Amino acid sequence: AAMTVLGAVTAAGAIATMVRNTDWKNDWAVVHATVRAYPECGRAQCYLGSELLKRGDLAGAERHLKKAQGILPDYPPVHLALGSLAFRQGDWPAAEREMQLAMRYSDCEPDTAITYAALLLQSGHYSQSLAMLNHLSVDQPRNSRVFSNRAVLYYVQKRPDLARADAEMAERLNPANAQAAAILARLQPAAR
Length: 192
Hints:
Layout: H1 2-23, H2 27-37, H3 42-54, H4 58-71, H5 76-88, H6 92-105, H7 110-122, H8 126-139, H9 144-156, H10 160-173, H11 178-187
Helix pairs in contact: 2-3, 3-4, 3-5, 4-5, 5-6, 5-7, 6-7, 7-8, 7-9, 8-9, 9-10, 9-11, 10-11
């Protein structure tokens, strides 16, 4: 009888694994399954909200990010995503407030600072963005994003030599940096 029960439990586990494996074909499916199973998991809510934001579902992103914020009010990725969401919604004061919270709660973690500098650039706050990127270029000399973002800033400011130098540095650090390649292509249309 014990062997029959053990066999039944093993079979049930195998079936559950097969079902789960077909459901979890990618990160998107995993995070959906996690949010369904554990709706109070703030990190999963944040990840889902961030993915919805990337996909352009601003209402869905806001719903999940607000839920994540309620669960993890000091979690830097929540504020980083809420800042990006507010920016996409055209609310710069809210975006800046959220980005500053992300910076505070992350203890000025470099990726958070780079994203904040990029939002400053996109919002036209060039001098603030340049100050952050200049600092980051010294603090993070091997980070391709720093140099490609600063290349964009220089390009917008019509400083092609500086834009080219930073885009080339970004591309050397990460040959797959699409932003750097795009700047170089704009600066040298005949050569590329």
